[in-house]
Every structure is written in C-alpha cells, then in structure tokens.
Amino acid sequence: MKKVVVLVCMFAMVFTKGVLASGFHISSIGGVSTGGQQLSHWWNTSLQPTMEGEATPGAEITVTIDDVTRVINAGSDGIWAFRPDTALVAGDHNVTVSSNGSTVSFTLTLGSEAVDWDSVGSGATETLPTVGIFLPTLALIGTGGGLVAIAKKLKEN
C-alpha cells in the first residue's frame, strides 16, 4: 500500500501542468519581445501597441495606462493580451500591469518622433524572473525531497 501511495504522488508531480508560482510576465509590447527583461522604460512606434504575456490560467490582469484602467483575464492556457481601445497620443505614458499581488510599472514612449534613439541603444538591462511568489514552487520541491526520503525508507523495509 505504501508503494502505491508513493507512486501516485510521484506520478502527480511528474505529470502536473500549469504555473506553479502565482504571478505573470509581459512577453511582448507592440509585437517586440521583451526578452524576459523588466525595464523602467520601453519605446514603441505604434500608438496602439498590444501587450502580451503569461499568467496563471484564468488570472485577472489589471492594466493601467495613465489614468485609464482595464481588467482582462488570461486564457485557459495562461496567455493574455491587451490592446488600448483607441490610439494613444505620441509621447510618454505611465503603464502599470498587475496580477495576483504582483505589479510591473514602466514608462512607455509611443511614436517614432518621441523616441530618444541614443537612450535606446545605450540603456543597461537586467534580466529578472517572472514576478510573483515562489512559495508554492518551494513547497513542491520540498514535497519531492520528502517523497525521495519516503521511497528510500520503503526500500530499506
């Protein structure tokens, strides 16, 4: 019986799909990949850029551009997309995207005339992990270690 329980737990760990840590990330802005980078300033020539990303399936994502807020939901696959209802004016916009208690804020400069191309080329970048908490992932890892210990104990018996 003990062996069956261990096998079922191990099977569940191996074949479970989904986002283990709550949170989200932005994968592209206006069709341009963010490359996993979280910067304080992004530029795009479009006045109505689509932001895309990943989150927990069905998660609520709140997008605020300047003083306009809109709430969307990630699909069953965890993919979400947001496009402003109307074209924005060229220039700087304050953008905040949040989900499950995690928030990303940045300045989005729109329009080709408003871009400081020297700053774009010289900006330092930092690659950051997906925002969110890691406790569920650590709990799963801890459970995996516990299962290994249980399996060793059963083997000894």
Give an overview in words.
Helices cover 27% and strands 34% of the residues. It has helices at 2-15, 117-122, 135-156; strands spanning 23-29, 32-33, 41-44, 51-55, 60-65, 68-73, 79-82, 91-99, 102-110, 131-132. The chain has one domain (23-142): Sandwich (Immunoglobulin-like), CATH 2.60.40. The strands form 2 sheets. Strands 1, 2, 4, 7 and 10 form a 5-stranded antiparallel beta sheet that branches. It is globular, with a radius of gyration of 21 Å.
What are the SSEs and their pairings?
Layout lengths: L1 H14 L7 E7 L2 E2 L7 E4 L6 E5 L4 E6 L2 E6 L5 E4 L8 E9 L2 E9 L6 H6 L8 E2 L2 H22 L1
Parallel strand pairs: 3-9
Antiparallel strand pairs: 1-2, 1-4, 1-10, 4-7, 5-6, 5-8, 8-9
Helix pairs in contact: 1-3
Key words describing this protein structure:
Immunoglobulin-like; 3 helices; alpha+beta; 157 residues; five-stranded mixed sheet
CATH fold-level assignment: Immunoglobulin-like
**How many helical elements?**
3
Number of domains: 1
CATH architectural category? Sandwich
Q: Could you name the CATH class?
A: Mainly Beta
Helix percentage range: 25-40%
How does the helix and strand content classify structurally?
alpha+beta
User: What general outline do the C-alpha atoms trace?
Assistant: globular
| End-to-end CA span | 13 Å
Radius of gyration: 21 Å
Strand content: 25-35%
